[in-house]
Each structure stands twice: as structure tokens, then as C-alpha cells.
Design goal:
Elements lengths: L43 E5 L4 H12 L3 E6 L3 H13 L4 E5 L5 H15 L4 E4 L15 H22 L8 E5 L12 H21 L5 E7 L6 H5 L2 H6 L16 H8 L10 E4 L7
Parallel strand pairs: 1-2, 1-4, 2-3, 4-5, 5-6, 6-7
Helix pairs in contact: 1-2, 1-8, 3-4, 4-5
């Protein structure tokens, strides 16, 4: 096996959903680098998949910008509790809600919990996602297909539907799409399809609720180094992950967080219906 580049990662694999503790190298979520400046002072944010990866970086950044945070996550309790510590060190409240968002009954408990704890919702970040890599449709079970749609699409629909009645003018919905939304990897056919749907859903949402002053945007990450990668891709693909971008490497979660901060903030008051690419140079249409 060839030596990995200094800015890449060695071959490795985990079981789904993956944890930060087993990753080499450890992702950068902005723990030591992100500096807030009050862009979200007094806001309340709900973030799904907030225990690790992009969601964790967003939670840390939001807290340092002045927001209280509810984090929804599956069962990675140690990662979630560690994220909560960073939020609390920033002087903000953090509520943790474990459970599977693909289960609609659980998904429908998240927004009521946020309203119970904080009284309102200013920002909703639908970030939780599931993917698996396959070389043929025959490898994808009906159960996996249904789980992918339930996690990536139905949960987003449920949380948006539940949150909007508690949002005022100036609120922001941010949905995590992907470069796969219009440049799909064939091995990620189910995931890529859902990410295109997320971009489409978000564009419709922006038009439906613009008159109420609620903005909706999506972020399209490229290859980002998160636990999802070693837990859902073959080892050889993990080793080369991100190498096909013009920047020649995978992105770090910390490099995504500022975009979510902008879209959540009043500085983006006229930005709605957008899909923002953070892809290391790979274009989206």
C-alpha cells in the first residue's frame, strides 16, 4: 500500500455510523480555530447529525457566534457529549436528543423538545444523512433503499413541517445537499438521488415561505472528512478520498461551518433558494 499524502488519510474502515475516536487523522471541526463575532447572538438552532462531522463543526461555530443549540444524533453518545462540552464552553446551552431520525415517530419529537427547552426556533439545519457504496443496484436491499430515503428525505420533511409554525420572519432553514446532487457518483446512487431531491425541496421551500420571511438554502459539500466516510466506503476509496478535487484533498468540517453561519445569520437576509457549493473546486450547476 502506498504512503498517504500528508494532507490525506490512510486506508481505514469502521462499522456504521462511525465515530471520531477511531478516525486517523482526526477531523478538524474548528475546536481550536473557530472565532465567533456575535453573528447569531440570541438565536436558537436545531442541528441534526450534530455529534460529529459537519454537524459538529456547525454546532461549535453557532455556539461561538452566540446561539443555543439542540443536537439530534443517532447513538454516538461520546461524540455528542464532547460536542456539547464545546457548546457549553462557549457559554451557550446544548440539548442532546439521541435517536434514529429515519423513524418518523422519533423525528417528530425533536422540534417539540426544542420548543419546550428554548421557546422558539430560529435556525434549522437538516444535516443527518446515510449512505453506502455499492457497485450495482442488486447489492442495495429494499430495506437499505427505504432507510436512505427515510433518513435523508423524510426526516427533513418532518422537521421542516414541524419547525416552520414556530419560526418568525428572519428564520433560516439550511439543508445539507451534496456535490452529488448534480454530479452523482454511481456507487452512491441512492444517496446521490436524495441529495438532488434535497436541493430541489429547498428551492421550493424558499418560494413557499418567502412571504413569511423564512429563508431556505442548501449547502453542497464536496468530499469532507467525517465518520461517514470510513464507515460507508471501501478502504481503498477512503485512502484516495478527496484526491479527485482541484484542491487535491478532502475538506475538513471546519471549512464548511462558516457557510452555515452566514446562511443562518441576518447578514444573509436576501439569500434564499440558493445552493452553496463547498467542493474543493468541483463545480455544481
Amino acid at each position: 500500500m502506498s504512503e498517504p499524502r500528508p494532507d490525506s488519510q490512510p486506508a481505514q474502515q469502521q462499522s456504521t455510523p462511525g465515530t471520531l475516536g477511531e478516525m486517523t487523522p482526526k477531523p478538524d471541526h474548528g475546536e481550536e480555530s473557530y472565532q465567533g463575532s456575535g453573528k447569531l447572538t440570541g438565536k436558537v438552532a436545531v442541528i441534526t447529525g450534530g455529534d460529529s462531522g459537519i454537524g459538529r463543526a456547525v454546532a461549535i461555530a453557532f455556539a461561538r457566534e452566540g446561539a443555543d443549540v439542540l443536537i439530534s444524533y443517532l447513538d454516538e453518545h461520546e461524540d455528542a457529549q464532547d460536542t456539547a462540552k464545546y457548546v457549553e464552553r462557549a457559554g451557550r446551552r446544548c440539548v442532546l436528543v439521541p435517536g434514529d431520525v429515519s423513524d418518523r415517530a422519533h423525528a417528530k419529537t425533536i422540534i417539540p423538545k426544542a420548543v419546550e427547552e428554548f421557546g422558539r426556533i430560529d435556525v434549522l439545519v437538516n444535516n443527518a444523512a446515510f449512505q453506502m457504496s455499492h457497485d450495482s443496484l442488486e447489492e442495495i436491499s429494499d430495506e437499505e433503499w427505504d432507510h436512505t430515503l427515510a433518513t435523508n428525505l423524510s426526516a427533513m420533511f418532518t422537521l421542516c413541517k414541524d419547525a416552520i409554525p414556530h419560526m418568525q420572519s428572519g428564520a433560516s432553514i439550511i439543508n445539507s445537499s451534496s456535490v452529488n446532487s448534480d454530479n452523482p457518483s454511481p456507487q452512491l446512487i441512492a444517496y446521490a438521488m436524495t441529495k438532488a431531491a434535497i436541493a430541489n425541496f429547498t428551492a421550493s421551500l424558499a418560494q413557499l415561505y418567502g412571504e413569511k420571511g423564512i429563508r431556505a438554502n442548501s449547502v453542497a459539500p464536496g468530499p469532507v472528512w467525517t465518520p461517514l466516510i470510513p464507515s460507508t466506503m471501501p478502504e481503498e476509496k477512503v485512502e484516495s478520498f478527496g484526491g479527485n478535487t482541484p484542491l487535491g484533498r478532502a475538506g475538513q468540517p471546519a471549512e464548511l461551518a462558516p457557510v452555515y453561519v452566514l446562511l443562518a445569520s441576518d447578514a444573509a437576509s436576501y439569500v434564499s433558494g440558493a445552493r452553496v457549493a463547498v467542493t474543493g473546486g468541483r463545480p455544481i450547476l
